[in-house]
Amino acid sequence: MHPDERTVRELVSAQFPQWTDHAIRRMDGEGTVNALLRIGEHLVARLPLRPPDTESARRRLETEARGARELLGPHASCWGALGSPAPRPMCPLVVGLRSGMPGEALSSRW
Q1: How does pLDDT run across 45-83, given as a tens digit for each residue?
Q2: Domain total in the chain
Q3: Most Cβ neighbours (<10 Å): which of 8, 19, 33, 95?
Q4: Bridging pattern class, strands 43-48 and 34-39
């Protein structure tokens, strides 16, 4: 499975229409677990390269989101609105804004 720009466009259009007008492009580099595609300038879609079983994918995504919130500590609530001014943590963090559901273009969560 190698998700491409068309796959991400279909998923975003169906599930996150507020980002439909954003350009989609593959990021440089080859992942071994996930494909990374940029959605506009500030968002990234992370799609699995191998289909995981649904329950383990859900648990992994929830664990990663919980860990990012813990690292942000009191700044976690600042990430509710994209682009809102907020104090930054001491190190850069990736914070999941949304979790995509399986769709016609992809059979697993993303």
Answers
A1: 988 887 767 787 778 778 877 877 777 666 555 544 445
A2: 2
A3: 8
A4: antiparallel
